[in-house]
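FAQ: What does a multi-protein file look like?

Like this. Sequence, then tokens, then the next protein.
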Amino acid sequence: MGPFELPDFYCPYPARLNPHVESARVHTKEWAREMGMLDDPEIWEERRFDGMDYGLLCAYTHPECDAEELDLVTDWYVWVFFFDDHFLEIFKRTRDVAGAQAYLDRLDLFMTDDPPEPSNPAEKGLRDLWARTVPGMSDRWRERFTRANHELMQESMWELFHIEDGQVSNPIEYIEERRKVGGAPWSACLVEHAVGAEVPERVAGSRPVRVLTETFADAVHLRNDLFSYQREVEEEGELSNCVLVVERFLGCETQKAAEITNDLLTSRLHVFEHTTFTELPVLFAEQALLPHEQEAVLRYARGLQDWQSGGHEWHMRSNRYMNGGGRTGLRVSPRHVMGPGGLRNHVHVPYQRVGPLPLPEIPMPFAVRDNPHLEAARRATLDFAEAMGFYTLVWDRAGHDGYDLALCAAGIDPDAGLEALVLATDWLSWGTYGDDYLPAVFGRSKDFVGAKAFNRRLSAFMPLDLVVTAVAANPVERGLADLWLRTAEPMAPDQRAEFRTAVERMTDSWVWELANHIQNRVPDPVDYLEMRRRTFGSDMTMALARLEPGRSIPARVWGSRPMTALVDAAQDYACLLNDLFSYQKEIEFEGELHNMVLVMQTFFDCDAPRAAELVGSLMAARMRQFQKAAEVDLPALLDGVDADADVRASVAAYVVELQDWMAAILRWHRECRRYDEPTLRGTRWVAGPTGLGTAGTRIGTLLGRVAS
């Protein structure tokens, strides 16, 4: 008997079978034998290999490709599953961390034009596949596929570390890391190869294409976690499974955890559909994609869709997984349509009376310090806002004074000089005002076209040559032009470009919020958190931290898993904190949809106090992850790369900055007058969605540091 009954899977598309399935089975078995993958019965033997039926997997997931392409794709999947089982047997069971890393590093050498002689079946298979796959694709696709392969292999260490530590991830960490180690981005690259259509480079990094790939990845992995729970958790001692993650995080029974995992899977599939039908047409028009380019994107989307349907059918038939009692074929129930991700996300009634939200316990292990220039910064930012015209529309001076953004900046950077602190506070004022301005001006009229045009114009006020020729037509443009010249002048041209891109990503997210308002759509939990970081300005955070004078942190440390985990955990903590304090302001007074408390209410169909408890639990988990990254993972990384004293000092200083940042933001939320009910009921203009969190408190302070 299994640990739970398989849930009712959402299967909205029919699975189709490639007619070349039998030839793929014969070919790939012979190939696996030639590569040596059937030599060790402790890993694979012929009967088990036949039962796993990777030929059937690829015939279902790639139903339209020809026989030669199906053979190639099937060999890739045989290789990736062999790699996973080989790594499990040789390194996970033995806990050989050093040997595992050396094994993975050597595999990278087989994704080159001049690989060494292979020493095991995984290396031999990768060498053969690489030579058969990359010649017919573009250099950009090859770069993406190389990166996907590298991450798939290297992130196996993440699973090994969790087994070694006996640690189960928090839900946010799990979803992100699972994308890499689970291999679905790798599968998405192979979809392009199999359908014979590369996504055009100019839209490959766009939000719609990114979301298609990420929702595909999440749905593939969540489905696999449901089918593989018994094998991974009960038989292999694996800790990287979403059902287990939900069990531990919520303290619930395994059956309930499986149902919640399936609800998240359903929600992610709805996001895939929503993106396909509402965001791709806008992307095609904005980027003026030619017909053949549009066709390539749509063939890619259809290929991902085929993979979802076919992957489910294969899971129901393979002896690799627990699959008794599950259903095959099309399956769309009322709950799939009405539940998480479906119509439930479109029926929220705005401006409901909710009252002050009871706050959960908020962990904060770090003390806050103040900057001696606080009073001067308070006065200066009010004068800046008045000069830019902020008080002619949306804000007034008294309301802005009550927001006390200088208090936030002063706690974030207690050691900044006067000029730097003023600049940081002005950026906070501009970002918060801009986020309030867009819904006030465009939201009431649901003027999506006007909002897009407004957003596109902002780039003209951030010229790389520092010569602003555009004429500001509103306070947001006027303020940005002023801040850009004060901030970007000390930067090199490439640094200015990176900085501008980060600002653009933040302002683009404001338009995403407006689009959801027009559709009355409460976001999916994963989509919300990831876009919340963009509205918060995490890209800019990373860019500006690298530019701080005297900082010496090499790229291999900045781009490492521990550093990314550190920054993302801090960002999420602050975003969730803001959502708790701003709940009444946003839900009752603004008709807002972008608040994690409401997102959790919608997903779990629970009341606000329970949703707030869940948000508080996520905050606590992210704080624990931040502390572990700072105290354990980063020091281990620095030892592993033989970091010198300057690098270690720079990393330590950056950790302290993030600690100051989180402590200051919490203090600011408790003391400012932006969120208290008397102010909300007496304010002439109620500000727009998400408030300070969307403006990006970290952004303003780092900008001030760069300028100083």
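And here is the next protein:
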Amino acid sequence: MKRQLLVSYLITLLILVQVFGQPVVGVKKMVVREMDVLPGCTYNTTATVTLVFDSDTVLNFTDYVAYGSEGDASSTVDIYGSRLVDGFRATSFRNLNVTKGYTLKYSVPVRNLFNISINILADGKEVTLNCSGGYCVGVALKARSINYSLTIVPLDPMFSNLQLPVSVSWSVDPMYLYPVAFSDSPQSMRESGSEVSFQWSSVMNGSYYLSVVFEVRGENPWGEVFVPSPIITITLDPRVQSMLISKYKEYTKKFLGSSLGNLSAFQENATQLRDLLYNLSKGFREQARLLGEAGSQAESAASIILTASSQLKVLAQMTQEMRNNVAGQLGNVSTLINRTRAVLERVSKNVTVTEEQLQVILQTLNLTNSNVTLTEIKQMIDSSLSSIGEIETLLEKYGSTIRDLDRLIDQSLAAAENMATAANKLILMANMLREASYNLNQLADGLARAADLLDSMIAKMSKIETAEYFPEGFKSFNETFYKQIAVSETPGVSVRTDFMGEAYYFALPSIKIKRSEPDVSNVILETPQKRIASLWPVALIAVVLGVAFFIGRKGQQTSSIDEEKLARLYALRDKISRIMGGSNV
């Protein structure tokens, strides 16, 4: 039983050794991309790779650098081969005997990832630069100020969407130049007797711009102002990007927390407020609909009332015309009745004839066959007068009716005017109801928009904890740079690559600004013999000082020189100095 357990243990151990016991060589990798910049010339970028090994072994491997280009590679050891593979520069090494702490450096040409432009203004006027041999020379006679500006723009679209850390440091001699204005204030500035140093730490969002204005304080004997170049570094390490994004996320959470208090409580309150705004918007919209309908009904009622008022006025006019006509006819009848009564009354008063006289009158009128008697005539007159009285009574009733018609007409006209006024007021009320409906709709829309904004804010806040705050292309950026690994080609040995960092460095040219022409009118030209004769004491002092320095170092190492010898040496040096002071150099 024990033997079986031992065999099983050994088999398991062998399996673990085969699976996990494979030798691993750790490699720390640092990449520095240096871009040589001369305005008006082609920009060349070289990647210098530093590999530090942590194991003792003989290794065959290939190391990869992103954004490679064609060109020669160089190294501190022999390179087996270097070629482009899918945009990466693959550099291979064979039979490399490495020990713990062994460092390997090699350089390969790579693509330019950025474009940098330099612009020099002297007293506000652009200076044309002529560049060669790492220097640029421009002419600006009697210039009092120099404006040095630079612009960095990514050439690869992937870098345009990333926040790349940019570091700029600058040192100038205050005897010649002194900074007086900046487009962006430096984070640090230090001034000593012979140097003014200042530094920026910023982030490039799509591009980076910096401008510094220097006051010209002096020039060298050749009438030139030396403008040293700034040191510019862009960090391309993906870990820095992740750290920046994490800090940004943390800062956002802290800012929201300090501004809004407890985010969960604020989100809950904002949700309740959003629902309330939605409900208010819905309620106001319903009220607006009802007011709109009421306005339409009021306008319809006003139209009906205006129509009735118009018809009532027409009816009153017709009644007035009829009344006037009837009143006129009644007036004529009344006049005729009055005349008839008067005639009948005169006839009644004047009837004094006898029967015989009546018959004579009838015969005269050829009315003998009428058989009318005097009594009948009187009865007829009385009957007519009685009928006239009845007609007058009827006329008085008609007059009362006409007066009633007059009142009715007046009332009808007043009612028509009142109806017209009421209709106009209804129209005004309908307009007010429509305006109120419109305003309520606008209020409802505003509340709905506010609710939508709150809803959007709530949605964004709910994603604060889970959202990935990585810009577009960040994944591709990470993958590209993390593929810059060393791959072992030695059987049974693997390589683990740890990144120490990656930076992009701009090697900018130093600039000389010709400010004045040197005055050489008082310079005395000497013959070479005289010049050599005047310089031999200087050479002697240099030799003596060199010997003294050598003896001094030897004395520090062996402690064999005593104080007396050193005193003699110093006395000899002082004598030579006095001789030099008395010579005509």
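Q: Is there any per-entry metadata?
A: Some entries carry free-text notes. For the entry above: The longest helix spans residues 374-462.
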